[in-house]
Amino acid sequence: MTIYGIKNCDTVKKALKWLDDKGVQYEFHDFKKLGVSTEKLSEWSALVGYEALVNKKGTTWKKLSQEEQQSIISEESAFQLMQDKTSIIKRPVIEKEGKIALGFNPEAIEGLLK
Questions:
Q1: 81: domain CATH number?
Q2: What is the pTM (predicted TM-score) of this model?
Q3: What is the pLDDT of residues 68-85, one digit of tens each?
Q4: Which residue range(s) make up the domain with 68?
């Protein structure tokens, strides 16, 4: 299991604590330090759609100009934005055996653990 996110994100912290409390083994991939590949974004997009990966409720999205927000009209433009501003990716992305869960959702994470 790999957890993708940003160490200082409160939602990521909640998810990591939840996993630690359950004794779940995982690797942590820090977007800020390690970035994210187009291939990885493509894998996730195939599962949930690129729109679900963009966190439109977060500060990073809200700080974008209206023109920048309106330019996100395709997988390609979304991937470019997510690679330029990794904090715009909905987090955490929890990946296990070709499946993912977005955000901290204990039921979805439980589903990945089965």
A1: 3.40.30.10
A2: 0.93
A3: 999 999 999 999 999 999
A4: 2-113
Report the alpha-carbon distance of residue 92 to residue 89 in Å, rounded: 8
> How many other C-beta atoms lie within 10 A of the C-beta of residue 101?
22
**Alpha carbon of 40 to those of 1, 13, 64, 66, 67: distances in Å?**
14, 22, 24, 27, 27
Cis (ω within 30 of 0) for the bond into 106? no
Number of domains in the chain: 1
Cα separation, 19 vs 8, whole angstroms = 16
Q: How far apart are CA 17 and CA 70, in angstroms?
A: 36
Q: Is 34 a catalytic residue?
A: no
Taking a C-beta distance cutoff of 8 angstroms, is the pair 68, 14 a contact? no
Catalytic residue among 3, 4, 5, 9: 9
Amino acid in position 101 = A
Q: What is the pLDDT of residues 14-50, one digit of tens each?
A: 999 999 999 999 999 999 999 999 999 999 999 999 9
CA distance 82 to 105: 22
